[in-house]
Structure formats: C-alpha cells, structure tokens
TrEMBL record:
InterPro entries: HD/PDEase_dom, HD_domain, HDIG_dom, Metal-dep_PHydrolase_7TM_extra, Metal-dep_PHydrolase_7TM_intra, PgpH_phosphodiesterase. The chain crosses the membrane at residues 20-42, 319-340, 355-375, 387-411, 417-441, 462-481, 493-514. NCBIfam families: HDIG. Residues 781-791 have a biased composition (Basic and acidic residues). This is HDIG domain-containing protein. Residues 543-700 form the HD/PDEase domain. Pfam families: 7TM-7TMR_HD (PF07698), 7TMR-HDED (PF07697), HD (PF01966). Keywords: Membrane, Transmembrane, Transmembrane helix. Residues 752-798 are annotated as: Disordered. The keyword Nucleotidyltransferase does not apply.
Length: 798
C-alpha cells in the first residue's frame, strides 16, 4: 500500500511540480546556446600587403566593408538636400513703425511747444514767432533723419513742415510699409528663386518657429517692393494733393528694407551635421565568400577585408551577443508562461506533459535550420549555378512545428509557438527582420489550415497551401531586399514550394509518433475511435446492449449540445460513446441490461451495491488504458459522475441502519468533478437520458420539466464548479437535450389493421392521413397471433 502511495505521489509530482517546468526551460535554453556556439568561433588572420596566402581563407561570418567613394557621394547628396535657411525678421515692421512714430512725434511736440500769439498782438510779433518755430524745426532736421533712419531732402522736409508733420501722413507711411513687409521682402530675389525647386527653410528671428516655403515667387525683391509702394498707396492717398502723395511714396520707399535674409552660417552648420550623421556605405561579405586563395598575393582590398573582419568580430563581442540573444528568448518564453500556463481556465499546460511536449518540439525544431543549411550547402556544391542564401532559407520546413502544435494544443497556442520558433530561428541563422516575418506568417497560416484536420490528406493539402503562400512571401522578401533577378526569383519559388510541401510531410510523419509518446488524441484519432465497429464497442453492444444504446444516445446528445456552446462536438461524442465502458465487466448489475424483471441488487446490501456501481468508473479507466483510448476519454470516464451521490442506495442504507450509522462518503463517486465542458455535457446527458426512460407518458412538457429539474439539481450540487460552463451555456444545453429527447420519445401513429386501411384508402385514396384509434372491423385490436399480424410481419400462417 505504501509503495502504491509513493508511486502515486511521484507521478503527481512529475505531472504538476513547477520545478520540472523550470528544468525544462533551462534545458531549452541550454540547447539553444549549444546551437549558437559554432557561430561564436572566429579565426583571425594577420596578413600584410604583399604577403602570400598560405591557404584559402573564407569569411566565417557575414560582415560589412565600407565603400569610401559611395560614402562620400552619399554625404554630398545629403548635404545638397538640406534647405537653405533664411531668417525672417517679423519684428522689422514694428521697429520701423517705432522709429517713424518717434520722429514725427518729436517734431509735432516741438511745434506744439512753440507759443501761439494772442489775437491782439501785432502782425510783427506773429511773424517773429513763426520764424522762430521754422528755425527750430529746421534745427531738428538732423535729429528727425536720425530717428527715421533715412536722409530726407529739403523739399520733402518743407512739405512735412507745411503739413505740420501730420499724424495721418505718418499712419499712411506705416500702413504701406507694414503691408509690404508682411508679404516678405528679400534683398536678392534672383538668388532666392534658385531655390524654387526645393524651397527654403524660413526661420523666424527671435522665436522658435520654422517652416518650409515652396512658393518663393510670392516674396518681393527690394526693387519690386518699392514699385509696390505706389500700387498699395494709390487707393489710400486719394484725398491728398500730388505733392503729398509723392512725399508719402518717397518716404515709404526709402524706409523699406529686406526682412528675409539668407543665413549662410546656419545653413552650413546644418549641412555639416547631416553629413557627419551619414553612416558609411557598406557592402556585405557573405559567410563562406572567398577572401584569399592559396598562393595569391594579398592586395589592399583584401587587407581591408581582413582588418574589417577582425575589427568587427572583436567589437561585436559575440559571446555577449549570444548571451543577450539567449536572454531575449528567455524573456519570450517567460511571456508565454504568463500568457498560457499561468492563465486561469487554460485547458492546456495543466500538467508538465504539455510543457514537456512544447520543450521537445522546440528543441527538435532548433536543429531543423542547421540541418537544412548543411543539406543546402551540399546541394549547392553539386549544382552548376550558385544558390542565393535566401533561397535555402525559404526551403526550411519550419511550419511543421506550428502545424503539429495546432493539432495537439489548438490555434492560440500554435500562434505563440510560431512566434517563439521564428524568433529563435532568426537568431540561429543570424538573419534579419524579413526572415522572422517569413517564418512567423508561414507558421501561423500552417496552423490555421490544420485547425480542423480530420483526414490524413489534410497534411498534404496544408503543405501545398503553405508552399503557395511561401512563394508569395518569398517574392515580397526578394523585392524588399532588392534581389529579384529572374533566376534568383525562380530559385526562391522552388525552395519556398518545397519548404511548404516538406512541412506537410514532416507533420504527417511525426504526429503519430508524438501521439503515442505523449498520449495525445487528435481529431483523426477521435474519428477512428468513433467507429462503432471497434471491438470494445461491439463487445459492449453484445454483452451490455442497454448500456450500448444508452451510450450511443448520450453521444448524439452531447454532440449536438457541444455544437451549440462552441465546444468540441467530435470529442464530446466519442467520450459519450465510451463513458460507461466499465459496465461491460458486470453488465447485469446495471438496470438497463437486466431482463425478465430480475434485479441482482435485491439480494445485496446497499453498501455492496454502491461499490459495484462505483467500480464501473475504475474499471472503465482500466479498459481505456488497455485499449489506449487516450487521456481525454480516460478523463471523461473518470469524471462523468463527478462526486455525486448514489442516492437510492444511500437512502436505502439509512432506512436499514439508521440515519447516523451511514456515511455519505461511502455512497459517492470518487470524482473528480468535470474539468472540461465536454465532460460536463456527458454528466448532464447521462443523468437526463437515463431519467427520461422512467417517464410513463413522456410528453414534451414532462420532458422539459425533467430536464430542467435535473440539470438545475446538478448545478446546485456544485458538480459543474470546475468546468467553464456559463448559465447561458446551460440554457442552450437544456434546449438541445429537450429537442433530442422529444424526438426520441415522440408519439407514433397506432397503425390500423388491413381492412381499415383498405376502407380508409377507398375513402380518400391515401394511407398517410389515418388517425390513431381506428376501430378494428373484427371487433378488437390485433393480437400477436392473429393471421393479419403474422402476414404483416412476413411470417407464414399456421
């Protein structure tokens, strides 16, 4: 007994211990690092110019060499693309306005400060005052010119004096200047228009604002702006005489100055910065490319290649990069852990078997790229032409891993597996993002086409579809990489097609092996198990016909209900067929198999009867293991009664021994409760179908009441606590079961005797419209021994 307990504890530890999962994760990372190890070893060669190569030297890894000429051209091109910077002085109109206003205001103030003579004073006094004011105004001419920032002719100054430095003249001058400057005035319009094809970068002085201007013709040159002064002034100065108009136009033209000027220092600084940021133009030396041949003198270019190889392999810190790659994959796996393994309600990864399966599959497909590369190199040496590196990559049948996972774990897990496998393969091959995308998309589409695999030919069909899709993906990658010559593209297509077909063939080959190794059950196996001609089901049909019929009906019921709640109908049906397979050991102890009204339990104690009934679960599990029915069916057999109580014998024992003398645990199934929706459907159908046989008159209303009462009782008893059924699902299940049971127990027409049929036929010419209960012309119902009855059943008369 202790040995059995220790064995059970060990099995439970191996199935659920988190330590096992961490060990498997470490194993996956270790294998990944081992596969990366050959890429870490780089031999250094120290040849100088003029040395003779002692042996052939091939590039151990792909690396890049700088093309100096191309780099210089690219820098010059980048410098030319920098737009010329022009400064826009947005504050210039305000400054000019301040100067003009200050100049005019000072002269107006001077005129206002000159004392005005009284009317009673003589004309001589008035003349002296005007002379004094005139002299004072002309003394301030230099001051006025300084304030204005321009020289003013004597004639213009006289007109201004005459107009008393009118505020209206000041306002018109400023308005004309502002309107023209707001449009923009540039000193060298011809130089500006040279940038018309590209535009300029207009930077506002004193503000962090900059904009690209393409329409350069809208800006005025200085001469054009002066011409525009008269055009702008024309509608504004209609009320003035010709002399004042000319004064306003002249002053406005003299006050105009460019507010858009080129900033050559800023432009040059930006060009230097962009040119310095240009990365060197590199051309790739592919892994395996010949760098030196034996007996060849080393040239400058070859020295450069060797130095670059030595420098890059040293600077890349390859060991650190590989360690970093391993850590990245570790992070990816940990993310998968939290997305799937730690998520509540997840139907996979409940045991370490699922984790072991994923680890084995990852390790297996870690070696696929390396093996494929070796085969491709061997093939390439015997071909008269050189294959591109991408062609061999497209031929790697990596989709087989995702297709296999989809069959056993479902599409959601397969997508995550495809992501991990594509990332790991990209690191192993030291490829780029385009290779990752190729493998990832090819993988998830392979999984998508394997979701409903119920025939062996689906593997080949999926392989052909993946091959066709790979051709499209490989074309996209070739266009992206700029390598799509005629022969190159054809080789890509050929390998891409072979990679897809190879994935289908590999999947078809390894799925049966994995099924046997990990005891998984695919839809293909379920279809084989659903065959009612299998020996164990035929034995059940012969030795326990009542149980067999009950199981077939339950299988049909759960299949229909599973389709309603989006469960697995095929799995539910097959589990329904086998859920009571344990009854084949002692069929006569189950009422559906008893004949002649004899019940063996009448002579047994209630406790013994309950043991016999409970034992059919354990015996069913043993039969399932012997016939290798799979873990899902074994779980259905074990859980389809949950921890429910055999209420009949429990109550009988209480009547015989007393309520306190009977332990309910002795009359309960060991469980566990249903863990999946499919098993819960079997529990409900098992109870409902058996109870429906006890109805004397199974009308639709009685069937509905029975189904609802029993399912509600099972739900209230907590038997559905561990599965994922919702109240909405239970409602759909009830309706599905009611519909099927109504079809099974529907009332049939009571067929009349032959004479009545003949009479009825003479009346309306149709036998399918007769009502039940047609009287027998002989005066009663047919008996089994009557001549007419024997004639209808095909038996000869006595």
């Amino acid at each position: 007994m202790n040995i059995v307990k220790k064995k059970t504890a060990l099995v439970q530890f191996l199935r659920t211990a988190s330590l096992i999962r961490w060990a498997l994760l470490f194993l996956v990372m270790l294998v990944f690092l081992i596969i990366l190890t050959p890429n870490l070893l780089v031999t250094e060669y120290a040849y100088r110019l003029g040395d003779v190569a002692e042996k052939n030297v091939k590039a151990p890894v792909s690396f890049f060499v700088e093309d100096s000429d191309a780099t210089a051209k690219k820098q010059q091109q980048a410098g030319r693309e920098i737009l010329t910077v022009y400064d826009y002085d947005a504050a210039l109109p305000a400054r000019v306005g301040d100067n003009v206003h200050s100049a005019f205001e000072s002269l107006r103030a001077e005129l206002a400060a000159t004392p005005v003579p009284a009317p009673s004073e003589s004309d001589a006094t008035t003349g002296d005052a005007d002379t004094a004011a005139h002299d004072r105004v002309w003394q301030l001419k230099a001051h006025f010119e300084k304030k204005m920032g321009i020289s003013v002719s004597s004639g213009a100054y006289k007109i201004l004096e005459k107009e008393a430095f009118s505020r209206e003249i000041e306002t018109l001058i400023l308005r004309i200047i502002r309107e023209i400057l707001d449009n923009g005035v540039v000193a060298n319009k011809e130089g500006l228009l040279r940038e018309a094809d590209r535009g300029i970068s207009l930077k506002t002085v004193g503000a962090d604002e900059e904009q690209v201007v393409r329409n350069l013709k809208k800006f005025y040159g200085l001469d054009q702006a002066k011409t525009m002064v008269r055009i702008v002034a024309q509608p504004l100065v209609r009320d003035f005489n010709y002399t004042v108009i000319n004064l306003i136009v002249d002053l406005a033209q003299r006050l105009l100055q460019p507010n858009i000027t080129p900033n050559r220092s800023e432009t040059e600084a930006r060009r230097k910065k962009v040119m310095a940021a240009i990365k060197p133009v590199l051309y790739q030396i592919k892994a395996g490319e010949m760098l030196l041949r034996e007996g060849e003198r080393v040239t400058d270019l070859q020295v450069l290649k060797l130095k670059t190889l030595r420098k890059q392999t040293r600077n890349e810190k390859r060991y650190a990069r590989s360690l970093g790659a391993m850590l990245l994959i570790f992070c990816l796996l940990m993310t998968t852990w939290f997305l799937h393994i730690r998520r509540r309600g997840q139907r996979v990864f409940r045991t370490n078997r699922d984790v072991l399966f994923m680890a084995v599959l990852l390790i297996l497909f870690f070696f696929v790229p390396s093996i494929s590369q070796v085969l491709s190199e061997s093939l390439g040496r015997h071909l008269p032409f050189r294959l591109s590196d991408f062609a061999t990559v497209f031929g790697i049948p990596l989709s087989a891993g995702t297709m296999t996972v989809c069959l056993f774990m479902g599409f959601e897990v397969a997508v995550t597996f495809s992501l991990i496998l594509a990332a790991c393969t990209t690191v192993i091959l030291q490829s780029g993002f385009e290779v990752f995308i190729f493998f990832f998309l090819s993988g998830i589409m392979g999984g998508y086409w394997m979701q409903s695999c119920r025939e062996r030919k689906v593997f080949i069909k999926a392989g052909l579809k993946i091959g066709g899709l790979n051709i499209f993906f490989s074309t996209a990658v070739a266009v992206y990489m700029g390598d799509f010559g005629g022969f190159t593209l054809i080789s890509h297509w050929a390998f891409a097609l072979m990679g897809g077909i190879g994935a289908g063939i590999i999947t078809a080959g390894i799925v049966p092996l994995l099924e046997m190794t990990f005891h998984y059950t695919t839809d293909i196996t379920l279809l084989e198990l659903a065959n009612l001609e299998r020996p164990i089901l035929r034995k059940l049909m012969i030795e326990a016909p009542g149980t067999y019929h009950h199981s077939v009906v339950v299988g049909s019921m759960v299949e229909a209900a599973a389709a309603e709640i989006c469960a697995n109908p095929l799995l539910a049906k097959v589990c329904g067929y086998y859920h009571d397979i344990g009854k084949v050991k002692k069929p006569i102890y189950f009422i559906e198999n008893q004949q002649n009204g004899r019940n063996r339990h009448d002579r047994l104690a209630p406790s013994m009867s309950s043991l016999i009934l409970i034992s059919h679960v354990k015996e069913g599990v043993e039969i399932a293991r012997q016939h290798r029915l799979g873990q899902e069916i074994t779980d259905a057999i074990r859980q389809h009664h949950g921890t429910s109580t055999i209420r009949y014998f429990f109550e009988k024992a209480r009547q015989q021994k007393g309520a306190n003398a009977v332990r309910i645990e002795n009359y309960q199934y060991p469980g566990p409760k249903p863990q999946t929706r499919e098993i819960a459907l079997i529990m409900l159908a098992d109870v409902v179908e058996a109870a429906s046989r006890t109805l004397d008159n199974p009308t639709p209303s009685r069937i509905r009441g029975l189904v609802e009462r029993l399912i509600d009782k099972i739900f209230s008893d907590g038997q559905l606590d561990n599965c994922e059924l919702t109240l909405k699902d239970l409602r759909k299940i009830k309706e599905s079961y009611i519909k099927i049971l109504n079809g099974i127990h529907h009332h049939r027409i009571e067929y009349p005797d032959q004479n009545a049929v003949k009479t009825g036929k003479e009346k309306d010419g149709s036998t399918d419209r007769q009502q039940t209960g047609v009287p027998n012309p002989a005066g009663g119902k047919d008996s089994e021994d009557s001549p007419d009855h024997l004639k209808r059943t095909g038996m000869p008369r006595r």
